[in-house]
Amino acid sequence: MKPIKVEVKWAILFSIMTLIWMVLEKVAGLHGKYIDYHMYLTNLFAIPAIWIMVLALKEKKKLDYGGNISYMQGFLSGLYLSLIIAALTPLTQWITTYIITPEYFPNVIKRSVEIGYYKTTEEAVVNFNYKNYAVQGTIAAFVMGLITTSIAMIFIRTKKP
Question: What's the rounded mean pLDDT across residues 73-88?
C-alpha cells in the first residue's frame, strides 16, 4: 500500500469545499428566507463532492501508481479517503453549525413545524441538531464516498489490453 498523503490532501480539500458550500447556501438564503428550497438545492452538493473524489483518485493513479492503477488499489485509496473525510465531518459540521450558520437549526425547526412536517417543536429539535447532523453526515460521507469510488474506479482503473 502506498502512503496516504494524496488521500489526506484531498480529504482536507473536500472539507474546505464543504465549508465553502455551506457559506454559499447561507448567502443564497437557503438557511433563512428560502429555507423551503434547501432540501432540494442542497442535493446539488453531490456534483462538487463527486468531482473532488474523482480528482483525488486520478491524482493517486498518476502520482503513486505511475499511471497504472488496479480497481482494488483505487478502491482502497477511496476507502481511506472516505474514512478521513468521515473523520473530519464532525469538525466541518461543528464549524457550519456554530460559526457559519448558527441560525439554520432554529429556522429549520420553526419552518418544519409551521408546514406540518413535525407536529411539535420538540419532535423537530430531536432531528435538527448538531449531534444528529454530525452522526448522519459522518455515515453519509463514508457510504457515499465508497459508492462514488466503486463507480469511478470502473472508469479510472487501468484497463488491461
Answer: 98
Cell of 136: 448522519
Compute the distance between CA of residue 42 and CA of residue 26 in angstroms, rounded to an integer: 11
SS3 of the chain: helix, strand, coil, percent, to 5: 80, 0, 20
Give the per-residue pLDDT at 159: 87
pLDDT of residue 38: 97
Rounded Cα gap, residues 107 and 152, in angstroms = 37
C-alpha dist (Å) from residue 8 to 14, 35, 84, 88, 160: 10, 33, 7, 10, 29
Q: What values do phi and psi take at 102, rounded to 5?
A: -65, -15
CA-CA distances (angstroms) from residue 97 to 22, 132, 133, 153? 10, 12, 9, 34
CB atoms within 10 A of CB 135: 13
Q: How many CA atoms are closer than 13 Å to the CA of 124, on its beta-carbon side?
A: 18
Q: What is the pLDDT of residue 160?
A: 77
- Are 15 and 87 a contacting pair, CB within 8 Å? no
